[in-house]
Structure formats: structure tokens, C-alpha cells
Write a structure and sequence with these properties.
The protein is an alpha/beta fold. The chain is built from ten helices and eight strands. Strands 7-6-5-4-3-2-1-8 form an eight-stranded parallel sheet. About 45% of the residues are buried.
């Protein structure tokens, strides 16, 4: 999928089901993801054993060769990631990776790298997801709206909000945010947020994240089940599945 096509998919139409991958057996995982019909390969570079640019690019190559749309992130430890280095090294790696992928995801809280990632993405015509994660709770609606506004001001093509849910009220807050700001990504994490992984794409959330083995996030559903449910409930998704 070309960058421009992925940009269009992120803007509207059927949602995408993403699966996250590190660098272990990249060729095997890429082939399996292609055969299963994965819509988007999230490349978690912070999971890589080597973060040397040449090694990272070599691990990305099989996903591109398989024809899979690719979304790269180098997730900070502050938002659940495993990046081992400093901000300067992370920005350099982002700049090396951006031309080789179809989209990038960078955290709103990563002040030291966010402007540089956005600039590199603009230069390469690659869409940027600016993300906010809260692994403890779902903040109130005013806080989340402020996060959306800040991400948009920072240059996001798509804003991602992912929070831990502790009941139906949290899900209502997230659903209300999604209805107010269509064409963003909204996820309720945790066991009580598992339904959001299917419901929110029906309300307009652009990407839902699923798992094929590996390291599932809290409340994340298997890819095959996510795809089956979206095909059942979403005419748009079913038409292109």
C-alpha cells in the first residue's frame, strides 16, 4: 500500500486492523501477516534487539516486500515502551526510518522529538499519528479534549487516545470523544475496554490493534477474532476484507 493510499485509509472509510511486530523472524512474521490479511503492521522498533539504523531498516524490509502497510513507532518508556536510548538517538532513528515506512506514531509527551519527527514526516510525505496513552485511568473529557487539541496543534494527521478503562463510564467518555472528533484513533485498554476494540471502529476509530501471539496489550483481542467481528458488524470492513 502506498503512503498516499494509507493516508486516505486513515482519513475515512473502513477501519484498519493492526498487529504489532518486533524484529524477531521478521520475514516469517511478514509472510504470515500478509497471508492472514493484516491491514497494518505496527513496527515496534523499541522492541528491537538492535537499534542500529541499518539493522532496523533490514528488519522493516520484509514487511514492505510483503506489500504490508507499515506504521513505525519507537515508543518511550514513559508511555509503555522499551526505548533504551536518549531522545537525540531516538530522533535520529526516527529520521532514518521515516522514508522507509508508510506512517509513524510519536507520543504527544515526547517534546524533545515530536517536532523533528513531524518535520521528517512532512519532508517524506508520511502521515503522523500523535498519540497519548494513560495506563492507569481514563482522564475526564476536558482533559482528553485538551490532549486532542495539543496533538492537532503539534501537526498530527491522526490523533490517537488510548486509556485504561475501569467501567462503563470510562467507555462512555471515550465514545463521546470519538463522536466529537471523528477520524481519530480511540482505544479503551484493559479487560473492561476489550469491547472498544470492535465497537469504536464502528463509530469511526481509524485503527484497532490486535495480536498474533507476541505481546498483546491489556484487553487486546486476537487478530482473527477482531477481523471476524468487524467483518460481521461493519459492512465497509466486510466489503474490503
Amino acid at each position: 500500500m502506498a503512503t498516499q493510499t494509507l493516508r486516505a485509509r486513515l482519513s475515512g472509510g473502513a477501519p484498519l486492523v493492526a498487529v504489532s511486530f518486533g524484529d524477531e523472524d521478521a520475514a516469517g512474521h511478514a509472510a504470515r501477516a500478509r497471508d492472514l490479511g493484516v491491514d497494518l503492521a505496527e513496527l515496534r522498533i523499541d522492541w528491537h534487539r538492535s537499534v542500529e539504523p541499518a539493522d532496523v531498516l533490514a528488519a522493516i524490509a520484509p514487511f514492505r516486500a510483503a506489500g504490508l502497510p507499515t506504521l513505525a513507532t519507537i515508543r518511550s518508556k514513559a508511555e509503555g515502551g522499551y526505548w533504551p536510548g536518549d531522545d537525540a538517538a531516538r530522533l535520529r532513528l526516527f529520521e532514518a526510518v521515516v522514508p522507509a515506512v508508510d506512517a509513524v506514531d510519536v507520543e504527544l509527551s515526547s517534546d524533545a522529538v515530536l517536532p523533528g519527527v513531524v518535520a521528517a514526516a512532512r519532508a517524506a510525505d508520511v502521515p503522523v499519528i500523535v498519540s497519548f496513552h494513560d495506563f492507569d485511568e481514563t482522564p475526564d473529557a476536558d482533559v482528553l479534549r485538551a490532549k486532542v487539541a495539543s496533538a492537532q496543534a503539534a501537526g498530527a494527521d491522526v490523533v490517537k487516545i488510548s486509556t485504561m478503562t475501569h467501567g462503563s463510564e470510562d467507555l462512555r467518555v471515550l465514545a463521546g470523544l470519538l463522536l466529537q472528533y471523528p477520524r481519530m484513533i480511540v482505544i479503551g485498554m484493559g479487560a473492561e475496554g476489550a469491547g472498544s476494540r470492535v465497537l469504536f471502529p464502528l463509530l469511526g476509530s481509524r485503527v484497532t490493534y490486535s495480536a498474533i501471539g507476541g505481546r498483546p496489550a491489556p484487553g487486546q483481542l486476537p487478530f482473527e477474532e477482531t477481523k471476524r467481528l468487524l467483518t460481521l458488524f461493519s459492512p465497509e470492513y466486510g466489503a474490503q476484507a
